[in-house]
Amino acid sequence: MKAIQVAQTGGPEVLTVVDLPVPAPKVNEAIVKIEAAGVNFIDVYFREGRYPSPLPFINGQEAAGTVTEVGSEVTNLKAGDRVAYTSALGSYAEYAAVPAVRLVKIPDALSFEQAAAAMLQGMTAHYLLYSTYKLQKGETALVHAAAGGVGLLLVQMAKKIGASVIATAGTEEKAQLARDAGADQCIIYTQADFETETRRLTNDEGVHVVYDGVGKATFDKDLNVLRPRGYLVLFGGASGAVPPFDLIKLSQKGSLFITRPTLGHYTATREELEWRAGEVLQMIVDGDLKLRIHHVYPLADAAQAHRDLEGRKTTGKLLLKP
Ligand code: NDP
Asked: Which domain holds residue 299?
């Protein structure tokens, strides 16, 4: 089978097409013939070595496809089942061996592409809004990079809850996508100072919560746009990792809270995974959550997909098609 391997960490050029045997399942695994694999910013961190993995590895941790074979202890799945998953490394490939406990069945109404596009970013938006900081109707949230994969889903789900959303985006075109997704206001933070604008838009009161996947470039100002006892939910570092931080600033700036959550801890049990995946996939079936597929790349073009994602050229979801 064809797969995209990383033998040494580095830039997009280290993503190499290789020929490998189709994996055989361990007792608790299923083999999935992949129809669509999601590209996510976390794949960049693994490729760079920011998140370490033993080498070589097959990049990617999200896909949808068909079960071809199951291990001897797998009872809830059989060959032919349509499934999707996230949080298991190795999805940039034609086949992957996946722990059965990570696989969820895809509703008949959804395509493989929709399912692959929804699992990681959809469940991320879900846990950030419903569990990390439980956003309430009438509250105001600031969502950074709102035209991105996670961003567009965060905006839609926050509006469904009944919150006000101030979005940021890098260009006017992206800002329009954020508005179309429901954002009440959108700040083009490459042109205007988002701190000044957010304070102005909230009559100097600040927001209840900031959802920030941009990190290094936005972190300091995030602390200045929160109301007292507000929450900074720092869930990624697309612009770089946030440097070490003096906790006394949280007190000085209003007894603030900061958390740095990860999807794995919010889908750790089968029950929680099924709840989140079920709700997200159902929202798509019902038309309450719209997916924006930026582009579907051939598997061999994974490096180009990474260049586009890192180059801030994309909006919504990037997929690879084996
Ligand atoms: P996006 O589609 O959001 O792409 C990243 C976006 O970040 C860009 O389009 C760009 O939007 C913005 N950005 C701002 N500064 C930079 C920069 N210097 N370089 C690159 N991009 C920049 O990606 P994803 O939806 O896949 O991920 C968004 C974030 O969410 C990432 O940080 C990712 O790690 C994190 N994440 C965290 C999870 C968790 O559980 N903790 C799970 C899933 C994702 P613009 O041009 O509008 O600024």
From this structure: 2-120+292-321
